[in-house]
């Protein structure tokens, strides 16, 4: 599979947060920085720098490129740790960094699971769990990579693939908790786009602003 055909791992998180947001970013190529995305970028500064170190018996790799050709996904892992258990066997632990707090939906978990799927193929191993580190709590949250999460991840990959291949952008639907925190709210215009307005109404509203 050519690189341009690979789905970015971040697209899976975007899709589960909001399919329209995912399409605006990955189909229409629209991106706007906000205070929240800037905070996230600062949180990732260390993990965005490629490197490796060995400390207390744990080998840590940052900014590790990931790819799974069979699934058609690719991206970069914030942190991948290589531990050794009490029996002397090495196991892999992906760690994803997020700026906020744990969320009610599973978007972050799916992104982490997709990273694990890539690592499993690349390293010919199996990964039982990973970690999500949230900037607001400053704590790691363990995530079990069970069959339910894996099935959701595979289904999300298929849904994102179908949307990108179709080149379609879902219609807007305003939800305060989701939309007000989105950096693309001005590009998306959910207050306007989810309503049935005529062209004449739109023109009138624009003229009224002048």
Task: Tell me what you see in this structure.
The chain has 210 residues and is α/β, with parallel strands linked by helices. The chain contains 9 helices and 7 strands. It has helices at 9-17, 19-26, 35-43, 107-123, 147-166, 176-179, 185-188, 190-193, 199-209; strands at 7-8, 51-55, 58-68, 73-84, 90-98, 129-134, 139-144. Strand 6 and strand 7 form a beta hairpin.
Q: What's the mean pLDDT score?
A: 86
Tell me the total number of β-strands.
Answer: 7
Quaternary structure of the protein: single chain
Succession of helices and strands: EHHHEEEEHEEHHHHH
User: What does the overall shape look like?
Assistant: globular
Largest sheet: 7 strands, mixed
Percentage of residues in helical conformation? 40-55%
Give the total of domains.
1
Helix/strand structural class: alpha/beta
Number of helix segments?
Answer: 9
Strand content: 15-25%
Task: Quote the CATH topology.
Answer: Lambda Exonuclease, Chain A
Poorly predicted tracts of residues: none
Distance between the termini: 50 Å
**What is the CATH architecture assignment?**
Alpha-Beta Complex
């Amino acid at each position: 599979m050519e690189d341009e055909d690979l789905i970015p791992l971040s697209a899976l998180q975007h899709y589960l947060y909001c399919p329209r947001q995912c399409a605006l970013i990955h189909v229409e190529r629209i991106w706007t920085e906000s205070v929240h995305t800037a905070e996230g970028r600062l949180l990732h500064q260390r993990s965005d720098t490629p490197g490796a170190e060995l400390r207390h018996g744990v080998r840590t790799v940052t900014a590790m490129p990931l790819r799974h050709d069979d699934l058609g996904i690719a991206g970069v892992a914030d942190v991948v740790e290589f531990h050794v258990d009490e029996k002397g066997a090495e196991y892999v632990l992906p760690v994803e960094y997020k700026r906020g707090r744990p969320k009610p939906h599973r978007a972050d978990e799916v992104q982490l699971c997709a990273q694990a799927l890539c690592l499993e193929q690349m390293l010919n191993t199996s990964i039982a769990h990973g970690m999500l580190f949230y900037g607001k709590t400053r704590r790691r949250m363990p995530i079990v990579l069970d069959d339910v999460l894996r099935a959701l991840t595979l289904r999300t990959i298929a849904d994102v693939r179908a949307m990108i291949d179709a080149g379609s952008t879902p219609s807007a639907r305003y939800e305060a908790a989701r939309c007000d925190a989105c950096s693309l709210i001005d590009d998306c215009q959910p207050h306007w786009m989810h309503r049935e307005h005529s062209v004449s109404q739109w023109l009138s509203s624009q003229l009224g602003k002048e």
